[in-house]
Structures are given as structure tokens and as C-alpha cells.
Amino acid sequence: MEKVEELAAENAVVVFSQSGCCMCHVVKRLFCSLGVGPTVYELDELQSGGSTDDLEKALMQLMGESAQAAAVPAVFVGGKLLGGLDRVMAAHISGLLIPQLKEAGALWL
């Protein structure tokens, strides 16, 4: 859990992802289309010697019921968990995402 919090706090927008996950791809494309360059950690590509399982378990705990069967995508804005694709899209559609990104320093305009 500490490692996830540490990684999430290092940058304005952090996405924990799997390289073959279509929902992760949608989240990453959304941020890129908004002009945000998120820091992306592809859990299936990390060479951490087994700690990727720990990261995934910690993400599932943080995501709670919304994780359902997967811990990714897990999006952090300003070091705080925003959620998965459903919560990111809901924030975007409702107009709440852009202010959060500005507050975190991910957008300047």
C-alpha cells in the first residue's frame, strides 16, 4: 500500500495500468486528448521481482467494490485516488475532471 501511495504522489496524474487492457487504453487516451501526460505504470511490464502482485492487491484494496475483478485502471490525481474508468469518465462528463487536473498542476490553461 505504501508503494502505491508513494508512486501516486510523485506526479500530478498517475495511471496504474495493464498494457493489454482496453479500459486502461481509454483512460490514457482521454488524458492525452486533454493535453495531460500521465505517468503510467504498466503492472505487467514492471520488473519488480514479485512486488507487482503486491501493487495489484493494494490497488484492489484501495479501489474497493468498484474494482470488481480488476485493479486497473487505477487513476490518481494530485496523489489522491480518483478511481477507475467509470469514475474518471463520470468526472469528465460532469465537468469536474478539468478543475481537478488544474488543481493538481496537470493542466495550466
Automatic annotation (TrEMBL):
Database matches in InterPro entries: GlrX-like_pln_2, Glutaredoxin, Thioredoxin-like_sf
Presence of keyword Cytoplasm: yes
Subcellular location per the Swiss-Prot or TrEMBL entry: Cytoplasm
Keyword Cytoplasm: yes
Pfam entry (one): Glutaredoxin
Top-level division of the source organism's lineage: Eukaryota
Main localisation: cytoplasm
Domain Glutaredoxin: 13-81
UniProt keyword annotations, A-Z: Cytoplasm, Redox-active center
PANTHER family recorded: GLUTAREDOXIN
Family: Belongs to the glutaredoxin family. CC-type subfamily.
Protein name: Glutaredoxin domain-containing protein
Organism: Sphagnum troendelagicum
